[in-house]
Design goal:
This protein is α+β, with helices and mostly antiparallel strands and 188 residues long. The chain contains five helices and eight strands; from the N terminus they run αβββαβββββααα. The model has no long low-confidence stretch (mean pLDDT 89).
Length: 188
């Protein structure tokens, strides 16, 4: 085939590649964890092949979208449609709360919660929650297994690049919490 379809026209090859990429950060991921509302195809249109996604709405209506992508971009689309579903398929097992200094504030947003989590199927994540007088939000960051190769200090360096100094609680602040080191599986 050509560069646009590097794995041929069997859409399952692209879904497998997407799963492999997801498994770099989420080794416990399986295809069963993918969003069931999406399906994918490679279809012939006017003598050429195109990438296609289907989305089944709650009312049963099916939305069809064509993409003039190369293979890598189509794989990224599949990842984007499914990574959060994979993450939500791995329930929280244990939580370690980072002590939050009073009044940690950025542009009117106050840090309400900062925690690290272990998950039942394996893996670690961190959650940061903040709000102001009118609204709030949280964000979960799944930590790639490669971050745990090496020392705790090397972990903190990589983690700080992924979650840059959340509300001023950067690697130097987190390094001062010895219980976190044990929670994350690093020896004392």
């Amino acid at each position: 085939m050509d560069n646009k379809f590097p794995y041929g026209t069997d859409v399952n090859k692209y879904i497998e590649k997407a799963l492999q990429k997801i498994q770099v950060a989420h080794p416990w991921a399986t295809p069963e964890m993918f969003n069931k509302k999406y399906s994918y195809a490679i279809e012939e249109k006017k003598g050429h092949f195109v990438y296609v996604s289907y989305y089944k709405w709650d009312d049963g209506e099916i939305e069809r979208n064509e993409y003039d992508y190369d293979g890598d971009k189509f794989i990224e689309l599949i990842i984007g449609n499914n990574e959060s579903w994979v993450e939500s398929s791995n329930p929280v097992k244990d939580v370690f709360e980072i002590p939050v200094r009073g009044g940690v504030d950025i542009c009117g947003w106050t840090l309400e919660r900062y925690e690290f989590r272990t998950h039942r199927l394996g893996g670690y994540s961190s959650v940061i929650q903040a709000g102001n007088r009118y609204t709030g939000g949280s964000r979960e960051f799944f930590i790639p297994p490669a971050f745990f190769e090496g020392t705790f200090e090397e972990f903190l360096e990589k983690y700080n690049e992924m979650v840059p100094g959340a509300f001023g609680l950067d690697a130097s602040y987190i390094a001062k919490i010895p219980e976190l080191k044990a929670f994350l599986g690093f020896e004392k």
